[in-house]
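Supplementary Methods S3. Complex input for the adenosine-5'-diphosphate-bound model.
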Amino acid sequence: MTDPVQRRRAYGGIEAGGTKWVCAVGTGPDDIRAETRFPTTTPLETLGRAIAFFRAAQVDEPLEVLGVGSFGPVDLDPTSPTYGFITTTPKPGWAQTAVAAPLQQALGVRVAFDNDVNVAALGENRWGAAQDCAYTVYITVGTGIGAGVLIAGQLLHGLVHPEVGHLRLPHDWQRDPFPGNCPYHSDCLEGLASGPALAKRWGQPAETLPPDHPAWPLQAHYLALALVNLICTLSPQRIVLGGGVMSQPQLFTLIRSEVQRLLNGYVQAPAILEHIDQYLVPPALGGRSGVLGAIALAQQALPLTGREASITST
Ligand code: ADP
Ligand code: ZN
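Predicted complex, serialized as structure tokens:
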């Protein structure tokens, strides 16, 4: 439910993805007042389209705060000169791109900035599949693999932020001779189990592999190894699995039984032993986890004070 005080306010949210951006104004899933989505092209054009959308929205009602969940890697250290930048991405034209500052300057609002998966974790926790779970992991399995982690209701940052996609896993070379395709580690989780890794191993796009293909038990094995490591280190109350590859419905059944097999009864929690179908779950906000999470991020931040706002807009 949206807080009645929040309801009168307007927050902006951007899911800044490597393929597309989704922008929205509102206060939650039952109160989206404007929304747009467009492909990610050049930084100038893409930021320009977002700014034009929010400027038009601000004619009716000024935004309190704009939340942004961006593809990365991103710089989240507020003391760094490149805070709010997309840093070393291989995406052409986007390395070392300022995202937060141009939005803040053009729109005169505080920008709350985080990475795409942290923000999706926040959205699913606030309104989606992980409500009332202060310890939540959200994993996306798509072009890359990444996870956002919520601990005691707070997004986990630390030294940088968790890089779950690059967990190192046991690799049975007899069962799986594919060497992996991560440019840094070859056979880390992302190198073995991202959509492009599946396509390379099996010689066809992941979405064309039939449900009974041996690709899926192997995929479930790798994801379950990573999930067991996360369960043992972070003790999440629920894990949400999203991204293009997870739209294979049979994967959930395979992963749940593989997680139970690998844990082998060690974690004595009913959530895992008896109700694993409610423990490892798909997202509930569909394609909106990111943009709604960005609005949730904005709602957690304080608006600019009058003086800061006048400095920013000059
Ligand atoms: P991105 O990670 O780029 O934001 P997605 O989450 O949609 O976008 O992930 C894209 C990847 O997911 C691609 O590698 C694609 O092959 C794979 N994918 C998309 N749909 C499916 C599907 N139905 N089954 C398996 N893999 C899929
Ligand atoms: Zn890696």
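The pocket of zinc ion (ligand 2) is lined by residues 166, 182, 184-185, 188, 190-191 (CB under 6 Å). The chain has two domains: 4-119+288-313, 130-282.
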